[in-house]
Specification:
Elements lengths: L1 H25 L4 E5 L5 E2 L5 E6 L9 E5 L12 E2 L8 E5 L7 E10 L6 E10 L11 E4 L23 H20 L8
Helix pairs in contact: 1-2
């Protein structure tokens, strides 16, 4: 009976360790919230746009920009990870002064340092103009390419994938399970005095 408990404890330990390695690998810097909010209509052009992500984007590899309806840059080109955010999950970009009424799109490209996860996304807000229904929510897309400062995707020159620990976890669980079955099927030997 103690052997079965030990085997079950071993399986639980392996599963716990696997969860600790798998969960960070699945985390990417997806949109969480923003100011102005996705789909919001404001009465005056804000001075900056802030976007909060679920994970910390890389300060050197992540970008954010704002464009108007014609695709022209509406930001000052200073998009960066906000160093005043203790979690480093916020990106900010200043907007040019004198922006007129209309719909503006915020485009971001995030890369997470821990696993190289890449997310390209965008959302829109309006200045005294309603945002079309199809642009009202943030749209994230995981990708394998890098985005240039001009917002165009560059060719993928490498892999952002990390080693998938799931096959190793399954193999370990099968070995533990097989060992438990063999242990239970082995006849008990009597101890000699």
């Amino acid at each position: 009976m103690h052997t079965v408990r030990r085997m079950l404890a071993g399986v639980a330990g392996v599963a716990g360790l696997a969860a600790l390695t798998i969960l960070p690998a699945l985390a990417h810097a997806h949109y969480a919230s923003s100011d102005p909010a996705a789909g919001a209509t404001v009465t005056a052009a804000p001075k900056q746009v802030k976007v909060v992500f679920g994970e910390e984007p890389s300060p050197s590899k992540s970008t954010i920009m704002v464009v108007d309806a014609t695709g022209s840059r509406a930001d000052a080109g200073d998009g960066k990870v906000d160093q005043s955010d203790p979690d480093r999950k916020t990106m900010v970009v200043s907007l040019k002064s004198g922006l007129g009424n209309g719909v503006y799109s915020v485009k971001y490209h995030t890369v997470t340092e821990d696993d190289g996860g890449i997310v390209d996304g965008q959302f829109s807000f309006g200045v005294n103009a309603p945002v079309p229904a199809g642009q009202a929510k943030a749209q994230d897309k995981e990708s394998g390419g890098d985005m240039a400062a001009g917002g165009k995707e560059l060719p993928n020159t490498g892999s952002a994938d990390v080693l998938n620990p799931l096959p190793l976890l399954l193999a370990g669980l099968l070995l533990l399970g097989g060992g438990a079955v063999l242990r239970l099927r082995r006849p008990a030997y009597s101890q000699r005095p």
